[in-house]
Design a protein that fits this description.
Blueprint (H helix, E strand, L loop, with lengths): L5 H25 L7 H4 L2 E10 L6 H5 L4 E2 L13 E10 L5 E7 L6 E7 L5 E7 L8 H5 L2 E6 L4 E9 L8 E5 H36 L2 H21 L2 H4 L2 H9 L1 H19 L8 H22 L2 H29 L1 H25 L7 H4 L1 H33 L9 H13 L4 E8 L2 H4 L5 H20 L8 E3 L2 E3 L2 E4 L2 E7 L4 H13 L4 E4 L2 E4 L2 E7 L7 H18 L3 E3 L6 H18 L4 E9 L5 E12 L3 E3 L1 H10 L3 H21 L5 E5 L2 H4 L2 H10 L8 E5 L8 H12 L3 E7 L3 H6 L5 E6 L1 H4 L5 H17 L3 E4 L5 H9 L4 E2 L10 H10 L11
Parallel strand pairs: 17-18, 20-22, 22-23, 23-24, 24-25, 25-26, 26-27
Antiparallel strand pairs: 1-2, 1-3, 3-8, 4-7, 4-9, 5-6, 5-8, 10-14, 10-17, 11-12, 13-14, 15-16, 19-20, 19-27, 20-21
Helix pairs in contact: 5-6, 5-14, 6-8, 6-9, 6-14, 8-9, 9-10, 9-11, 10-11, 11-12, 12-14, 21-22, 22-24, 28-29
């Protein structure tokens, strides 16, 4: 990774200081507008009192007859319930000027708010009805319930309010001069607009990310933002400015439900973001259980009145907070690097979230800032969460880059990164030497080792080589990993790679390489097995690269192959050596181009049911019509692809063509099984299996039969694991090229095979007549006893067809029945044979 240059770090600091100045000035200018209420700025005195109507049936005249209890507004025992609160505020003007004042009732969620202005004799001067149940109120009266009134010099008046709501009854009452009330509204608009703008922009940004990346975590975050807007819009009143009035009334009626939706979306987002959704752990079970609790609570809040639903919500917050704390801290312990923003994002939310109930119970004074504390906390949380998502995306990119350029087991640079480093050196006109070190006989014993044992072997060899490489300055660095320099790459099974300076002479180079070779352990104990190790080393100078990294790698591979053929421990590339191997690599390059340009051809052979002669499937083969060498067979193509690293590339072409063929046949209403023959080595590649799992979403894989060989040893867990993954994707497997080895036949069902195909050696051998009939009949009987079907291939004459029929084979194919054809001819052929096409499941 490139380090941040000092100039960019300096610019970043300047920008941060500028942003801090903007935010600081904004907070300073907003301050706390509630300090400008009339009793704090003028010689006007307020005296508040209250009376609670438990039955909520008292009229205005009834209330005037009651004895009100003197109390500060904040000290009134506000509670959830059906009772009505009558609050009186006596206002005394001791100045010599008439004042135009505004009484602000700071709770836009009230169902009923009726306000009267009374003179000294309790006669009504002004009367106003507010609240959600009152129609035809303008948007400002809905968002800011208020009453404007005039107070004469040296005069007295009273403001009497009746408050009734199914939710939070607590209603702070502030009296302002008109200008100061406008400041309250202005600062409210400012902070609301800031919150809405940031929330909408971040939601749109995440929607774009979801469209491009298709990661459901971004949808969960958008849901969280929208739920927060609905909830905060109801509580603070700005929802009147962003939703239709009818929708805002509905949201305020079900404000507890919107609180539940915030909690549900937050937990789903946390589960997806912290990668718990795809793993089976106790914490994942806890997350699912908490989600069930929250969903049940949300459903209950739809039918319960708000004063009953609110306590249910507070109770449900207990398991939510416990779950969040556990999943966050568990992830921090395992991977703090990319989870840190998520952790920090919860801090302002938790702190500000605790302030709301503290204000509600009177522990904290109700002010403009404490009223908007949760909104500010959510705003900071949304910003930090957006940073967390960006950091997660960046981490995923780094992780994807690392996986693409490093070996999964040893974490060493792979051939991709090694080639990239070579390209850099060539562009810098640096003379260097590529060096491959291959463990002798690695390919012979590695198939019988478990993946962990293989990983241990590679890591132990790597650990033995790293110290000697670090002290030699002639060995070039391939990659910087933090403070560590990596000088060793791992290209493929048993092959390590170095880059060396070209400055040393041949004798010094040989001595240096022999020293490196001597540090490879002569024997290692892996899983209780003593392995004897030796190695071959091949080098090639960059002067032979012709400024092409691929050519230089090809020549180094060529030299390594020649070193193994000659049985020498160390070999340097010579310009005149290796014509056959060079031809192989040229052929590999041509194969790559042929695959890219779709020059390989597919051919198809119909397969028939032996008894009813119905066409049940089609066998697929591929070939390469080469201009110079003629048609290259499927077996030769597969071997070349495996030897030269084109395996996955070939597989992707083959299965893409196969899927296209299936879709075309389906469009023609032709539903028959397709089969193809592949080697286990061709299938056994995680990159290919992963690609295939993404491609089969809309493909009926049950119509595909893959014929391959039986794993040689039952301990070959990796090969069996690949077969199991492909079986889980819906593919069927058949045992290919069987010619009488009953041990292989007995193991076939355990490996997931459902059909056995009589091999070429069996059908093309000298055996014929009665002897062939007896052997084939015995083999078929064993196969049937193992619940395997039998397919006979190369049925080219009537005599063999009669034997296949007599031995009760299930299926057969060959020139006698139908010739091999290309796809266009096959499509026409199948259309003419529709009446003879059978369904395997019905046979």
């Amino acid at each position: 990774m490139n380090q941040l240059k000092p100039i960019f770090l300096f610019i970043a600091c300047l920008l941060f200081m500028a942003l801090s100045l903007v935010i600081g000035s904004l907070l300073f200018n907003i301050g706390d507008p509630t300090t400008n209420s009339i009793e704090r700025t003028h010689a006007i005195y307020l005296n508040s009192s209250y009376w609670i109507d438990e039955q909520s049936n008292a009229t205005f005249d009834d209330a005037l007859k009651q004895k009100f209890k003197n109390s500060e507004i904040a000290d009134i025992p506000w509670q959830f319930g059906t009772q009505s609160y009558w609050v009186k505020v006596a206002v005394t003007n001791r100045t010599d000027a008439t004042e135009i004042l505004t009484a602000h009732f700071d709770n836009p969620m009230l169902d009923q708010l009726e306000v009267w202005q009374l003179d000294e004799n309790n006669r009504v001067i002004n009367h106003k009805q507010l609240g959600d149940t009152v129609a035809n109120l303008n948007i400002h009266q809905q968002a800011f319930p208020h009453l404007e009134f005039t107070l004469a010099a040296k005069g007295n008046t009273s403001i009497l309010a009746r408050i009734k709501t199914s939710g939070i009854s607590k209603t702070p009452i502030y009296i302002y001069q008109v200008d100061n009330f406008q400041s309250v509204r202005k600062f409210s608009y400012l902070i609301w607009g800031l919150f809405i703008g940031v929330a909408v922009m971040i939601a749109l940004y995440n929607l774009i990310l979801f469209i491009s990346i298709r990661d459901s975590v971004y949808l969960a975050y958008i849901g969280y933002i929208i739920s927060t807007l609905m909830m905060m819009g109801s509580v603070l009143g700005f929802g009147y400015y962003i939703w239709p009035t009818s929708m805002q009334y509905l949201l305020q009626k079900y404000v507890v439900t919107s609180n539940f939706s915030v909690a549900i979306c937050a937990l789903i987002f946390g589960s997806l973001f912290l990668r718990y959704a795809t793993i089976k752990t106790k914490l994942n079970t806890l997350i699912r259980g908490t989600l069930v609790i929250l969903c049940l609570g949300a459903l209950a809040s739809l039918v319960l009145p708000e004063y009953q639903a609110a306590p249910v919500f507070f109770v449900c917050m207990v398991p939510l907070y416990i779950t969040i704390v556990l999943i966050v801290f568990n992830r921090l312990l395992t991977d703090f690097v990319w989870a840190k923003y998520y952790f920090f994002s919860w801090l302002p939310l938790i702190i500000s979230g605790a302030m709301q109930p503290l204000v509600l119970v009177g522990v904290l004074e109700h002010t403009f800032l404490t009223r908007h504390a949760f909104l500010i906390g959510v705003l900071l949380e949304v910003l930090l969460m957006a940073m967390a998502l960006a950091d997660k995306f960046s981490h995923q990119q780094r992780e994807s880059y690392f996986k693409a350029t490093h070996d999964s087991s040893s974490q060493l640079p792979n051939e991709t990164l090694y080639k990239y480093k070579i390209t850099q050196l060539i562009e810098q006109q640096h003379n260097f030497i590529t060096c491959f070190i291959e463990l002798k006989n690695f390919g012979q014993f590695i198939p019988y080792m478990a993946p962990k044992a293989k990983k241990d072997l590679v890591n132990q060899v790597c650990s033995s080589l790293q110290p000697i490489l670090k002290i030699h300055s002639s060995v070039l660095t391939i990659e910087e990993q933090g403070l560590n320099t990596v000088k060793l790459a791992y290209l493929r099974d048993g092959v390590f790679a170095l880059l060396l300076n070209h400055g040393t002479n041949r004798e010094a180079l040989n001595k240096h390489l022999q020293n490196i070779q001597a540090h490879i352990p002569s024997s290692l104990m892996i899983d209780g097995i003593l392995l004897n190790l030796s190695s071959h080393i091949a080098t090639c100078s960059s002067i032979y690269s012709n400024q092409r990294s691929g050519l230089l790698l090809r020549k180094t591979w060529q030299t390594l192959f020649q070193a193994k053929q000659q049985g020498v421990a160390l070999l340097h590339y010579k310009k005149e050596s290796g014509t056959d191997i060079g031809q192989q690599f040229n052929l590999a390059s041509e194969l790559h181009n042929a695959i890219e340009q779709k020059q390989l051809t597919l051919s198809f052979t119909p397969v028939y049911h032996v008894k009813n002669k119905k066409l049940v499937s089609v066998s697929c083969q591929f070939a390469w019509p080469h201009e110079e060498f003629g048609e290259i067979s499927q077996q030769e193509i597969i071997k070349l692809a495996i030897d030269t690293g084109l395996n996955v590339h070939l597989n992707r072409w083959l299965f893409s063509e196969l899927f296209d063929a299936i879709s075309t046949l389906k469009d023609s209403h032709l539903n028959c099984q397709l089969s193809l023959t592949l080697s286990l080595s061709q299938l056994n590649h995680s990159g290919f299996v992963g690609w295939l799992s993404e491609k089969v979403t809309h493909i009926d894989t049950e119509n595909i039969m893959i014929y391959t060989q039986q794993p040689i040893n039952s301990e070959m867990s990796q090969l069996k694991e690949t077969l199991q993954k492909l079986t889980d994707l819906g593919f069927k497997f058949g045992l290919d090229n069987f010619h009488g080895d009953l041990d292989r036949l007995f193991e076939a069902p355990d490996s997931g095979f459902s059909d056995v195909r009589i091999g070429h050696l069996f059908t093309k051998g000298n055996m014929q007549g009665h002897k062939l009939t007896l052997l084939l009949s015995a083999m078929v009987e064993v196969a049937k006893g193992l619940d395997l079907t039998v397919t006979a291939i190369d049925v080219d004459n009537q005599e063999f067809a009669d034997i296949v029929n007599q031995c009760q084979c299930d299926f057969m194919q060959g020139e006698l029945l139908a010739p091999t054809m290309n796809f266009r001819v096959l499509n026409s052929f199948l259309l003419t044979q529709q009446s003879r096409i059978g369904n395997l499941s019905e046979l």
